[in-house]
Write a structure and sequence with these properties.
This protein is an alpha/beta fold. The chain is built from 11 helices and 19 strands. The chain has helices spanning 108-112, 116-132, 149-158, 201-213, 243-255, 267-275, 289-298, 319-341, 363-369, 374-380, 383-388; strands spanning 30-38, 47-55, 58-64, 75-86, 88-93, 135-140, 166-169, 174-176, 196-198, 218-222, 224-229, 235-239, 259-266, 280-286, 301-303, 344-345, 406-409, 425-428, 431-435. The strands form 5 sheets. The protein has a 7-stranded mixed beta sheet, with no helix packed on it. The longest helix is centred in the C-terminal third of the chain and has 23 residues, at 319-341. It starts with 29 loop residues before the first strand and ends in a 6-residue tail after the last strand. Bound molecules: zinc ion. Zinc ion binds at residues 92, 94, 141, 350, 353. Zinc ion binds next to loops.
Length: 441
């Protein structure tokens, strides 16, 4: 095993932004990263022995080590025995969810028993975990009853109060009456809901306006809810919003220059999502050939979140168990067909739906197993996700002008995709957040 010497000069504690620091007057530091192998997030092939020059929080230049000029007084980070990549992007997370383990009260306990402060504290831990694993940006697609808590966590990260990735937040999400938990309680009770429920285009547009006004970067809409196995063995999903309701939301969001992510499993709800102009389909468990063709034509993004459908299956001979197995098998087929057709696929995990203690990178081998090349899987979590988030060239790439969000893994993720679960170095916004010395263990 190679001995990797990770420069320890920059201590973890020193990486947290000093809140008191005046950003205007802070001297601009120059940092050099020596990369043994560089996967830049965009190119088809890696490059050997590269030097990345970082000024302040931006990448200034990337060049061959042989010809690189090292500015005097620079801090040098030696990753010459490692593979360096852009910080990763998970395009489907829930920082305010903590798994849905039935033994711990399932989904409902989050809303019914946890004080907002506890949920915010646990979200603070979640974002830190994401950053530790090399995810320097998250699209967090709704707070599950925690209101605008994601906006506050984002502000805390941007203000330097807590460490965390760049957040693109969706706030409350939108569904319809009968289209989201909490459910199953006595009808006499008015229960809180995990999303903002609307009925009719007027309420739909108003909800979108409220959410955008309160800081939503994206609008998240639930276009399907319950699902079961149909008479012909197909996956049936209960549609929620009408086309008119969705169109009101999309029209409003697009007017603000924002995008709409649609949770849609299959069937009518998925069709309405496409006809209504959704920008990204979340999950897309059973997508027909015609729907795939429509996604290609419209440029719709596909965030499949594969891993989450392999956990918590019901017993095999029960309706729920049959549905759970069909979800996974139909999903695999949809993923393969979408990939073949050239649908723009982005990496997403739905973590939060699975506990934050689990590794986020587990989605990579799932994608590769279904036929995606490791390089394309990396792009789905870097430059392609950045395109979807309208920050092309800013994040998800190691190139001049981009934010200095840089990670490193010890081995070659193109040979073994599991390497992406072994992130040992994390820089976000030009500041080292994590650096591990393997020879100090
Ligand atoms: Zn989700």
């Amino acid at each position: 095993m190679r001995s990797v010497c990770w420069i320890m000069a920059i201590a973890l504690a020193a990486t947290l932004t000093s809140v008191a620091q005046n950003k205007e007057t802070a001297p601009q530091t120059t940092t050099i990263i020596r990369a043994g192998t560089l996967i830049d997030g965009k190119s088809d092939t890696p490059r050997r022995d590269q030097v990345i020059v970082i000024r302040g929080n931006r990448i200034d230049s990337v060049s061959d080590a042989a010809s690189a000029k090292i500015p005097p007084g620079s801090t040098v980070i030696d990753l010459s025995q490692a593979t360096v990549l852009p910080g990763l992007i998970d395009s489907h997370t829930h920082i305010f969810l903590q798994g849905e383990d039935p033994a711990e009260g399932g989904y409902d306990v989050n809303i019914l028993k946890y004080p907002a402060s506890l949920r915010a504290a646990r979200a603070t831990v979640a974002v830190r975990r994401a950053l530790e694993q090399g995810f320097t940006a998250l699209r967090d697609v709704e707070t599950e009853g925690a209101g605008y808590g994601d906006v506050g966590i984002k502000q805390a990260i941007e203000g330097g109060y807590i460490p965390g990735p760049r957040l693109f937040v969706a706030t409350r999400a939108i569904s319809t009456t009968g289209g989201y938990p909490l459910e199953g309680y006595a009808p006499e009770l008015t229960m809180p809901k995990g999303a903002q429920l609307i009925d009719g285009p007027v309420e739909a547009r108003k909800a979108a306006r409220e959410q955008l006004d309160n800081g939503a970067d994206w609008i998240k809409v639930y276009m399907t809810h319950r699902s079961w196995v149909g008479k012909n063995g197909e996956l049936v999903s209960q549609p929620t919003l009408t086309l008119e309701e969705l169109k009101a939301i999309v029209d409003e969001a697009h007017g603000w220059g924002r995008k709409v992510a649609c949770h849609a499993y299959s069937g009518i709800g998925l069709q309405r999502a496409l006809d209504g102009g959704c920008d990204s389909i979340e999950h897309g468990l059973q997508i027909s050939d015609a729907q795939i063709a429509q996604m290609v034509k419209q440029g719709t993004w596909y965030c499949p979140t594969i891993s989450v459908y392999y956990t918590d299956w019901g017993p095999e001979d029960t309706p729920a168990g049959k549905r759970d197995r069909l979800r996974a098998s139909a999903h695999e087929e949809s993923f393969r067909k979408a990939m073949k057709a050239g649908v723009k696929i982005v990496f997403g995990t739905d973590i939060g739906g699975i506990p934050w203690t689990e590794p986020i990178a587990q989605e990579f081998p799932r994608m590769v197993k279904l036929g995606m090349t490791p390089m394309d899987a990396i792009r789905s979590a870097t430059s392609r996700a950045a395109d979807m988030l309208d920050v092309t060239g800013q994040i998800g790439v190691i190139a001049p002008g981009a934010f200095a969000d840089v990670i490193a893994v010890p081995g070659d993720p193109l040979k073994d995709i599991q390497e992406l679960g072994k992130v040992q170095f994390v820089m976000k916004d030009g500041k080292v957040f994590k650096t591990e010395s393997r020879d100090q263990r």
